[in-house]
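Review form for a predicted model. The reviewer records the input and the model, then writes brief findings.
Reviewer: anonymous (R2)
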Amino acid sequence: MARNDLSPRWDRKMQQRLARGEAAALGEMYDRFASLVHNLAHRVLDDERAADSVTREVFAHVWEHPETYDPKEGPLRSWLAEVTQRVAVQRLRDREALEQPLREERESTVRRASVAARADYIVHSMPAPLRAALDLAYNQRRDYRQTAADLGVTEDEARRRLRLGLQLLATAHDAGTPPGYRGAV
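Model under review:
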């Protein structure tokens, strides 16, 4: 690039040509600044296709709104970089806004699967009398009296087994914290 190509005078002439609707002016500007715009967009988005899209959007904006550039405010190059930054950051925000619900859904699925796996482990590792009492109460819909009768134990013993089994199962939600831990008082 020749030094006079980057002068404020060149910037003013380019803006005037664009304002008159000269397609050749847009072509010259694209040839000169497309790599700058694309590289800035790619740096922000880290995505080749998105950077291509931002580049097209920036030059479409320049074509449709040449009056938004004011040569008194600074060089055309700086203005293009600013427009590119603004468009790329907005694209990044839009992408993150779309990805957030998906990320939350995946985290929720992983959390539920983790709790289910932990509950399964707890049920299979608890003593057989507790497991039998929970099976009767949960799967066969027995109350503590029916559970006691089916197991041949007292009602107090059936309540104790059910309470202890449920307390153990409740720890499945507290993955990473020891059973009975309540934090600092």
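Findings: Residues 76-125 form the longest helix (50 residues).
Further findings: Residues 28 and 178 are 68 Å apart (CA to CA).
Recommendation: see findings above.
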